[in-house]
């Protein structure tokens, strides 16, 4: 039986903020659905996302290209944990510099 990825508190806050900042309900719903679909896919197949050797391992990255966001997740946890939800315009290495220091949920 498949298990969707779980979301860290930080990721939940970032997703909530992105949804609140969207003006159109249809766009909010589409982003929400895309995030939930990604969580299901990543839960079933943790290695679908890309590794980025210049960023901390074992973290992987799943792009929501339609929305300009990337999910940063730990493929080694069970279930997979989505740690961050970051806009692609942000400097990922800088944003993720303290990723190892995230508190446990």
Question: Can you describe this structure?
Answer:
- By secondary structure, this protein is of the alpha+beta class.
- It has 3 helices and 5 strands.
Strand element count: 5
- Which band does the percent of strand residues land in? 15-25%
Question: If strands are numbered along the chain, what order do they take across the biggest sheet?
Answer: 1-5-4-3-2
**Overall 3D shape:** globular
Specify Rg, calculated over alpha carbons.
Answer: 13 Å
Low-confidence stretches: none
Distance between the termini: 24 Å
Q: Give the topology string: H per helix, E per strand.
A: EHHEEEEH
Helical element count?
3
List the SSEs and their pairings.
Elements: E1 6-7, H1 9-21, H2 25-44, E2 50-51, E3 59-64, E4 69-74, E5 81-87, H3 92-95
Parallel strand pairs: 1-5
Antiparallel strand pairs: 2-3, 3-4, 4-5
Key structural traits:
about 100 residues, globular, 5-stranded mixed β-sheet
TL;DR of this structure?
By secondary structure, the chain is an alpha+beta fold. 35% of the residues lie in helices and 22% in strands.
